[in-house]
Amino acid sequence: xxxxxxxxxxxxxxxxxxxxxxxxxxxxxxxxxxxxxxxxxxxxxxxxxxxxxxxxxxxxxxxxxxxxxxxxxxxxxxxxxxxxxxxxxxxxxxxxxxxxxxxxxxxxxxxxxxxxxxxxxxxxxxxxxxxxxxxxxxxxxxxxxxxxxxxxxxxxxxxxxxxxxxxxxxxxxxxxxxxxxxxxxxxxxxxxxxxxxxxxxxxxxxxxxxxxxxxxxxxxxxxxxxxxxxxxxxxxxxxxxxxxxxxxxxxxxxxxxxxxxxxxxxxxxxxxxxxxxxxxxxxxxxxxxxxxxxxxxxxxxxxxxxxxxxxxxxxxxxxxxxxxxxxxxxxxxxxxxxxxxxxxxxxxxxxxxxxxx
Amino acid sequence: xxxxxxxxxxxxxxxxxxxxxxxxxxxxxxxxxxxxxxxxxxxxxxxxxxxxxxxxxxxxxxxxxxxxxxxxxxxxxxxxxxxxxxxxxxxxxxxxxxxxxxxxxxxxxxxxxxxxxxxxxxxxxxxxxxxxxxxxxxxxxxxxxxxxxxxxxxxxxxxxxxxxxxxxxxxxxxxxxxxxxxxxxxxxxxxxxxxxxxxxxxxxxxxxxxxxxxxxxxxxxxxxxxxxxxxxxxxxxxxxxxxxxxxxxxxxxxxxxxxxxxxxxxxxxxxxxxxxxxxxxxxxxxxxxxxxxxxxxxxxxxxxxxxxxxxxxxxxxxxxxxxxxxxxxxxxxxxxxxxxxxxxxxxxxxxxxxxxx
DNA sequence: TTGAAAGCGCTAACAG
DNA sequence: CTGTTAGCGCTTTCAA
Lengths: 357, 357
Fold this sequence. Notes:
The structure is a homodimer. The first copy, chain A, is of the alpha/beta class. Chain A folds into 3 domains: 2-42; 52-146 and 294-318, Rossmann fold, CATH 3.40.50.2300; 155-290 and 327-352, Response regulator (Rossmann fold, 3-Layer(aba) Sandwich). In chain A, 36% of the residues lie in helices and 17% in strands. Residues 337-357 of chain A have low confidence and may be disordered. The structure holds a DNA duplex. Chains A, B: Residues 323-357 are annotated as: Disordered.
């Protein structure tokens, strides 16, 4: 290439990197057009070797690529990487620790300038051996200190969801939680906290009967909701806060099966704002969005040193916005009235069940 | 490092790369343990520079990371890359041609050993300028010849779906297609072809009244299905083949709204086997799976030269397997009977509509 | 069985 | 304003 333009390699380098304008205008043009002609592009490898930084960043994830949920984190990370002319290595470990280890090694050998360690859902993860000290944790928190990390603010999200319902006038608000168990997501506890907090704030009783569990699926949501909807009038909830959108979809089914209209007879709010699901329900589901794109962006910005994390050892909580659609409304008028015994003269539709499934 | 082990760099290289066993056993051990102790890992950059291949592959996609559908293609590609000690650069262009261009350049500068160009859904794409001639197209076909590519065999998939219904005894099988329009996916035409082919094969009439269109969403599927279900008895379909699972979910809603049970009164088959959706319906949806993981695997294998594409210029059609769940059954007994006029004494439930939405 | 020398393609420091 | 020199960390002859 240097030859093609009839100049030294140094000059080519200087021109192509816009190092000051110490090079004469005509030389610059000559180099530029020669490069164009030859289709020359400097080798990032050689440059990386020389400059000791590769302009690449490694992104290790447990399952992002495998699962349809958190892809937008990648998009967020990519977008800022691209804006800064960085290329990203993606390694999906499938949750396998051995794979993770070799990924860390391989990335180090590639001299990546930064490392992001991402999880598919909000969780606490053990810090893998050999992970660079400046790695950023995305959608997870390391079990050891000293790292930057970003996670959704699930407590505030749970609070926001509940507040949405309280603001609409509901006083009997149920929380359809995921199963207990060793795999219980940390997000569930956080959302539950937010839920309770707002209830108390609003002077409402935290009724254990309104906190039910189900498997994290459409069916789980339906079963839990069915249980709640057959409660006696006096305690039956008028609004359901579901752990996620899939469970909310199940709650829709339970409501429909009882002839309950949403939001007229029952309000429902979900969590996740799952693409192609939440917005497509009838009526479209009001829900809390997980800020995946924003978290991905934040992580990459911090990793590249474009944005400083507040503190070295703090986990950044990112707001989960309320997505208002049409599944939340005021409670049915009659429920505001004082207790009525379950004497069987209910609202016109509350028990007109319809066969389903 | 060479120093740490008290040998030359050459020896270190030889040992760590298992080049013959010309090195004495004890020297090897010494080098290995010194490397371990120092935490030494050879620089892939330097090695790449020297060997003129970087052990990396570039994967350019329009939207894989943004959308929840095709992530498993990444997983498939990753898995084979990892098995061959390759790292993959992922660039999600968001469909922006300019970004795509710079990605191609950046990848070339990184000396990637192979390039994969992936789309989020089966389509014909223009070949981007500067794309290496040995690039492999994943889930799309280039509009110019000379490239290897892999796509799902949507025609066969459409045929398989229809055959599933025919085999169950259905004779009036509708196809709920996506909207027409400039964005009409190529897959739609292919699946339609397969549908018609099997109908003819089975000696069934291809009734245009049973080919309806809707927007590609739950709502679109519901509306199209509603239309079909209110057709007069004589022509009303007993089975619905839906363009995708989301539309099938809409069809479920339409069926339930009319009090029809699936598959007892109506059989439904979808397409995509969308994760966390298809299997969670009630009853679980029988559908055709898109072989995303397999296609990703194939593309990477071909790109790395591990597997030879049949012909240089052929597009590989990958089978879409039938996922049998519970939404397909035999048609209701009465429909086999000769024509009955819409004299209004229908089956016990066929018109007992139930309020919905 | 091992080491010395050369060079992959670039850029940083220094001359000119 | 431009070229020379050196060297990033490795692998590959070639020699010892």
